């Protein structure tokens, strides 16, 4: 479940309707429930890469695999596996 926020007041918006534009992109129309804001608008949501590959991939969809995030090494940490 996605949590889209109002760009003005940062309240969680209500999605009124949506439609699929492609296998990777959805267009969503939203309304802000904050009575002091009340803005309405359109959100485009696009999937840009895969973190964990699907066990049942769609052959029509190509999603690049994301690189593993480098974790900074703490120089104070002792190396348990001496290499």
Provide a descriptive summary of the structure in words.
It contains no helices and 3 strands. It has one domain (1-64). It is flat. Helix content is 0%, strand content 25%. The mean pLDDT is 89. It has a 3-stranded antiparallel sheet with strand order 1-2-3, with no helix packed on it. The protein is an all-beta fold and 83 residues long.
Q: What are the salient characteristics of this protein?
A:
83 residues; mainly beta; three-stranded antiparallel sheet; 3 strands; 25% strand
Order of helices and strands: EEE
Question: Low-confidence spans: pLDDT under 50, at least 5 residues?
Answer: none
The count of helical stretches stands at 0
The CA-CA distance between the termini, in Å, is: 43 Å
How would you sum up the major sheet?
A: 3 strands, antiparallel
Rg from C-alpha positions? 20 Å
Helix content: under 10%
Order of strands in the sheet with the most strands?
1-2-3
Structural class, from helix and strand content?
mainly beta
The counted number of beta strands is 3
How much β-strand is present in the residues? Answer: 25-35%
How many structural domains?
1
Based on CA inertia axes, which overall geometry fits? flat
Mean pLDDT score? 89
């Amino acid at each position: 479940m996605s949590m889209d926020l109002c760009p003005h007041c940062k309240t969680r918006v209500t999605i009124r309707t949506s439609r699929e534009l492609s296998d990777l992109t959805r267009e969503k129309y939203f309304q802000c429930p904050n009575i002091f804001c009340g803005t309405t608008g359109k959100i485009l949501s696009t999937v840009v890469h895969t973190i964990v590959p699907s066990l049942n991939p769609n052959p029509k969809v190509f999603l690049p695999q994301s690189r593993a995030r480098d974790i900074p090494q703490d120089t104070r940490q002792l190396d348990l596996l001496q290499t």
